[in-house]
Fold:
Amino acid sequence: MANQVIEALRLLNATASANGLDLENISGKAAHVVIDITSITGTAPTATFTVQGKDPVSGKYYTILASTALAATGTTVLKIGPNFAAAANVAANDILPRKFRVICTVGGTVTDLDCTVGVSLVD
Structure:
């Protein structure tokens, strides 16, 4: 089994939503997406993280899995794989396409969001 580790998103002092760059999945079929929020402040601040696949023909993005609205510091793991039991906002029974990205959508008034998102891919 080969592993691939990718930094998908890093936000420091963010106040608005952000799209991660397109990432290349060489041969992974399953993934752990590790979200680590170290600071989130503001008025009712939330951050929702979405893993999106990219259609190779149209270039359009589609949602594979989205987290719940996270409102506190801590670590959240999203799981994507063909052998995972699907669970809303936690796990998707799916494979990761060749091109994908992670986006962060903020809610409320966010005055400071510090977080990282790392992806571990497994064949």
Summary: The CA atoms of residues 18 and 38 lie 17 Å apart. The beta strands are 3-14, 18-19, 23-24, 30-54, 61-66, 74-81, 91-93, 99-122. The chain has a mean pLDDT of 94. The two ends are 6 Å apart (CA to CA).
